[in-house]
UniProtKB/TrEMBL annotation:
Gene3D superfamilies: 3.40.50.1360, Winged helix-like DNA-binding domain superfamily/Winged helix DNA-binding domain (1.10.10.10). PANTHER family: HTH-TYPE TRANSCRIPTIONAL REGULATOR SRLR-RELATED, TRANSCRIPTIONAL REGULATOR, DEOR FAMILY. Signal peptide: none annotated. It comes from Alloiococcus otitis ATCC 51267. This is HTH deoR-type domain-containing protein.
């Protein structure tokens, strides 16, 4: 079994059980104890688990996925400022992508009257954009109930055919070492595909998203500008050399 696949199986099992025993991994995967130790050490170095006596557990700060209603009420004033600034970057003629996040949804009202094309995987985003008379492409695929994001291989294949002047992504977590992460592998896949086809990539994230880690990485900090709320001096110092920060 390839190392990458084996370690992904370990992480999948850890997500289900919250804590795993080394001997269980030896039995389930048919590998040696030394291989288990190397795998757990490597995954711990990547911040994806914490080794304990006889096995491993999830990091305490591994951020879960919230549903859309929970996200929409968190830090609403900060999100409104971030959304307003992000929309100001969009000029007539732009071809933009809006991720299915609550902050990007806030952007939509600020785009009214602009001669642009918007591609989105957000069900709510598509409806609101059309209501405002904005030319819209809604990505096809499977719609998730909790986040109302369209995901899946069909969605990823579709966005790979487009080229964007501006990409606006949300994120669950930002970490100085691990970059930008999200709990869901399918949402990570479409974020990766879109970011690869964007001339300029912006991540919309208030200060509460910093110093946290979710399960699936989708982007390096060096590959985007992070538009955020006012950071503490310590957070600013930790991240200002890793990415372009815009505090609003």
């Amino acid at each position: 079994m390839l190392t990458e696949k084996r370690r992904q199986l370990i992480l999948t099992q850890l997500q289900q059980d919250k804590i795993i025993q080394s001997q269980d991994l030896v039995d389930r995967l048919g590998i040696s104890e030394s291989t288990v130790r190397r795998d757990l050490a490597s995954l711990e170095a990547d911040g994806k688990l914490v080794r304990v006596h006889g096995g491993a557990k999830l990091p305490r700060d591994l951020t879960p996925e919230l549903d859309l209603s929970e996200k929409s009420v968190k830090n609403s004033q900060e999100k409104a400022r971030i959304a307003c600034y992000a929309a100001s970057l969009v000029q007539d003629g732009a071809r933009i992508y809006l991720d299915a996040g609550t902050t990007s949804l806030e952007m939509v009202s600020h785009l009214k009257g602009k001669d642009i094309l918007v591609v989105t995987n957000g069900v709510n985003h598509g409806h609101r954009l059309l209501t405002l008379g904005i030319e819209t492409i809604l990505v096809g695929g499977r719609a998730k109930l909790n986040t109302q994001a369209v995901v899946g291989s069909q969605a990823v294949d579709q966005v790979r055919n487009y080229r964007f002047s501006h990409v606006f992504l949300g994120t669950n977590s930002i970490d100085a070492k691990l970059g930008l992460t999200t709990p869901d592998s399918e949402e990570a896949a479409i974020k990766q595909a879109v970011a690869a086809n964007g001339d300029r990539v912006f991540v919309l994230a208030d200060q509460s998203k910093f110093d946290k880690v979710s399960f699936h990485k989708f982007l390096d900090l060096a590959d985007c500008m992070v538009i955020t709320s006012t950071l503490t001096g310590e957070l600013r110092k930790d991240y200002q050399d890793l990415t372009t920060l815009k505090e609003v």
